[in-house]
From TrEMBL:
<feature type="binding site">
    <location>
        <begin position="101"/>
        <end position="102"/>
    </location>
    <ligand>
        <name>substrate</name>
    </ligand>
</feature>
<feature type="active site" description="Proton acceptor">
    <location>
        <position position="22"/>
    </location>
</feature>
<dbReference type="GO" id="GO:0008652">
    <property type="term" value="P:amino acid biosynthetic process"/>
</dbReference>
<dbReference type="Pfam" id="PF01220">
    <property type="entry name" value="DHquinase_II"/>
</dbReference>
<feature type="binding site">
    <location>
        <position position="111"/>
    </location>
    <ligand>
        <name>substrate</name>
    </ligand>
</feature>
<feature type="site" description="Transition state stabilizer">
    <location>
        <position position="17"/>
    </location>
</feature>
<dbReference type="InterPro" id="IPR036441">
    <property type="entry name" value="DHquinase_II_sf"/>
</dbReference>
<keyword id="KW-0057">Aromatic amino acid biosynthesis</keyword>
<comment type="similarity">
    <text>Belongs to the type-II 3-dehydroquinase family.</text>
</comment>
<dbReference type="GO" id="GO:0003855">
    <property type="term" value="F:3-dehydroquinate dehydratase activity"/>
</dbReference>
<feature type="binding site">
    <location>
        <position position="80"/>
    </location>
    <ligand>
        <name>substrate</name>
    </ligand>
</feature>
<comment type="subunit">
    <text>Homododecamer.</text>
</comment>
<dbReference type="GO" id="GO:0009073">
    <property type="term" value="P:aromatic amino acid family biosynthetic process"/>
</dbReference>
<keyword id="KW-0456">Lyase</keyword>
<dbReference type="GO" id="GO:0019631">
    <property type="term" value="P:quinate catabolic process"/>
</dbReference>
<dbReference type="InterPro" id="IPR018509">
    <property type="entry name" value="DHquinase_II_CS"/>
</dbReference>
<feature type="binding site">
    <location>
        <position position="87"/>
    </location>
    <ligand>
        <name>substrate</name>
    </ligand>
</feature>
Length: 142
């Protein structure tokens, strides 16, 4: 499958930000892990990251125009309030899985709300970078 992985704001700071929550592996190594695991399973995986909401919407639209078959998205904090990303996911009709490194349901109240998850097939949270691979497995099963 041709799979697009999209990471939102502050995820490029992995290995630096709140290591007790997000771990010590840096962003580059997390990306390598996802691409390698994806390739082992016979997929073409491309990863995009932005701290800017509009750019994330542009990535989702690119996934449509360039015929990606699945999207794995960690919208970071945009998860909790971006109706624009929700609409973008709905608009392209590509199976999309939401991933969070941390278990957002056992953290602050505001993180328990996802406005983007209802536009997705499902949400995976709390398994660190393994969550991205679980999401790829989920896309395979569709
Ligand atoms: C996150 C959880 C969000 O609440 C937070 O804003 C992030 C990372 C996660 O992967 O656990 O930036 O999406």
């Amino acid at each position: 499958m041709k799979i697009m992985v999209i990471n939102g704001p502050n995820l490029n700071m992995l290995g630096i930000r709140e290591k007790n929550i997000y771990g010590t592996k840096d962003y580059k190594d997390v990306c390598k892990y996802i691409v390698n695991e994806g390739e082992k399973r016979g997929h073409q995986v491309e990863i995009f990251q932005s701290n800017i909401e509009g750019e994330i919407i542009n990535f989702i639209q690119k996934a449509y125009f360039e015929k990606y078959e699945g999207i794995v998205i960690n919208p970071g904090a945009f998860t909790h309030y971006s109706y624009a990303i929700h609409d973008a996911i709905k608009g392209v009709d590509i199976p999309t899985i939401e991933v969070h490194l941390s278990n957002v349901h056992k953290r602050e109240e505001f993180r328990k709300i996802s406005v983007t998850a209802p536009a997705c097939v499902g949400q995976i949270a709390g398994f660190g970078e393994v969550g991205y691979i679980l999401a790829i497995n989920a896309l395979e099963s569709m």
